TrEMBL record:
<keyword id="KW-0472">Membrane</keyword>
<dbReference type="Pfam" id="PF05099">
    <property type="entry name" value="TerB"/>
</dbReference>
<feature type="domain" description="J">
    <location>
        <begin position="253"/>
        <end position="317"/>
    </location>
</feature>
<dbReference type="InterPro" id="IPR001623">
    <property type="entry name" value="DnaJ_domain"/>
</dbReference>
<dbReference type="GO" id="GO:0006260">
    <property type="term" value="P:DNA replication"/>
</dbReference>
<keyword id="KW-0812">Transmembrane</keyword>
<dbReference type="InterPro" id="IPR029024">
    <property type="entry name" value="TerB-like"/>
</dbReference>
<keyword id="KW-1133">Transmembrane helix</keyword>
<dbReference type="InterPro" id="IPR007791">
    <property type="entry name" value="DjlA_N"/>
</dbReference>
<protein>
    <submittedName>
        <fullName>TerB family tellurite resistance protein</fullName>
    </submittedName>
</protein>
<keyword id="KW-0346">Stress response</keyword>
<dbReference type="Pfam" id="PF00226">
    <property type="entry name" value="DnaJ"/>
</dbReference>
<feature type="transmembrane region" description="Helical">
    <location>
        <begin position="24"/>
        <end position="48"/>
    </location>
</feature>
<dbReference type="InterPro" id="IPR036869">
    <property type="entry name" value="J_dom_sf"/>
</dbReference>
<keyword id="KW-0235">DNA replication</keyword>
Amino acid sequence: MEFITRLISAVIAAVIASAKGRNIIIWFILGFLFEWIAPVIVLIIPAAKKRRVFPGRGNRSDMRWRRGVSGTCPYCGSDVIIDDIPGKWTCPDCGRSFIYGEDGRFYRIREDGISRQIGLITTLFARAAKSDGVVTEDEIAQVDRIVRGAFRPNHQELRRIMKIFNESRYSSGRVEDVAEQLYRSVAGRRDILTDTLTALVAVAAADGRFTSEEETMIRSVAGVFGLDGVYEQIKAEFFDRAGLRESGPDLASCYRLLGCSADDSNEVIRKSYRHLIKKNHPDLLISRGASEETVRKANKKIEAVKEAYEQIMAARA
């Protein structure tokens, strides 16, 4: 009978010890030797504290859990502070990911191909060149010069970049979405975004003209970047240096906008113009319950239609 009592006390002590993170075997023996005293003691004492250590670092006291480890981003050189957790981290300044190793060092991630930022910038180059409907050889050459000078890609990377450029020329996605992705990818760094705007203007004007379509596209990107004022400065400085002037859409684009052809009479063109103005008139849209965004787009459409009509009539005078 005494043996059974001791055994029960030992089991109870071991169960309680296990729940509190204590050594099960030791408390089983103590329970067997001291009977009910051992379960009472292990029930009273606090649970054991766990030390958090990293795999492969051993259990030395200097390897305990730490927070606020400081280091240098292996890409931009900025000072970063992270938790002492080996793995992948992102620099808050340049937006690039790096590896914090178990040895406490910061490493670059070995990348296959080109970075996401370069891909997004290249996509914007393509959209800027294509925004007026035609990608010229001068614009392609300008992109090539910018890519080689800014990114310094090897032969394979350059081929990949130009492939992205060619594919993006036919993309139907919103350019604002691409700009937003780039903004987030570089964590809103003004220097990178400003350089991107400068390059976009250079690409768009590489063929010697800066159309209203190109202006609209790049201005929308500047709006996403939050650099509207900076964009105006870039454009003014670039135009002053290059001796360029903004040009409206070419006649072919004007005819397409009005839904006419160069063979149509002035009367046909005038009727089409009046129809488009009436169709997009804000008062009409508001009376039909159109949203503010729809009305805003309609006003822009009216401005474009008027400009196209005036340019056609001026060319026919």
